[in-house]
Amino acid sequence: MPFIRVSYIEQQYEAEQLAVMRDTIMSALIQHFNVPADDLFQVFHAHKREAFFYDNQYLGVKRSDGLVYIQITCKSGRTIEQKKGLYGMLARQLAAAVPMREEDVFVVVVETEFEDWSFGRGEAQMLPRAVTDEGQESAVQQAAQPAKVSPSVRTAQVTELAETAQREQGSQIGEPSPNREIQSSARESYGDIAPAFVRYSEDVLFGDVWRRGQLSLRDRSLITVAALMAGGMIEQLPYHLRLAVDNGLTIEELTEAITHLAFYAGWPRAASALTVLKEAAGR
């Protein structure tokens, strides 16, 4: 769901170079923000030189008239590590592909919430599912719904993005779900006997609580894994360990967290959690 604005001085870049910028920005968003490949919304603005202002030495960065402002408006929750990875990839790859100077890549991330977006038809598609006056369910995060994108295409996108994120983070865990589209297993596990439980899981827990901006998804995953391990709820750990990696935690960080908790929650529980982590990581 990111919306991208790119501003530059007119006649500094040709149409082919702008197309390279578009593709490079999208590639970086897919790799570091786990954005779906079809979530492409960008606009480029060419400005007259007299209407484009910047300081050419602020913070020790020597800028030129090739400066490009890249504003990324997106949902809150990305970690510092994800943002730094995005900034670095944009500077390096734009400099190499456009080409342009790394010093002229200026990026700002503007964070929003789900209620701040409408993708058309006057609807807030990213808000949790609700029952309408007519008793029909409205769309829940339509960008993530299998009905809008074929399962085979969505599965391929998820797999590609997950593998890319794993290579970037150096982790080995397999078959993770996409970071930005948290997929609960409740519907598959309990949908036939507890539809209300599924609805609360999808709409309230993962649709609201996990999306609040006060904590990042990485923080929430670490807290959840710690709570499950401390409570001895091992059956829930495989799913949440995969989700934790999707949300930016490495296998090494999860191992260290469990080791730390062993002194507070108990050695047997820590050993059980490490066994689950080892199996999930394929080690």
Automatic annotation (TrEMBL):
It comes from Paenibacillus cellulosilyticus. GO terms for molecular function: peroxiredoxin activity. Keywords: Oxidoreductase, Peroxidase. Residues 132-186 are annotated as: Disordered. Residues 195-279 form the Carboxymuconolactone decarboxylase-like domain. InterPro entries: AhpD-like, CMD-like, Tauto_MSAD, Tautomerase/MIF_sf. Coiled coil: none annotated. This is Alkylhydroperoxidase/carboxymuconolactone decarboxylase family protein YurZ. Residues 167-186 have a biased composition (Polar residues).
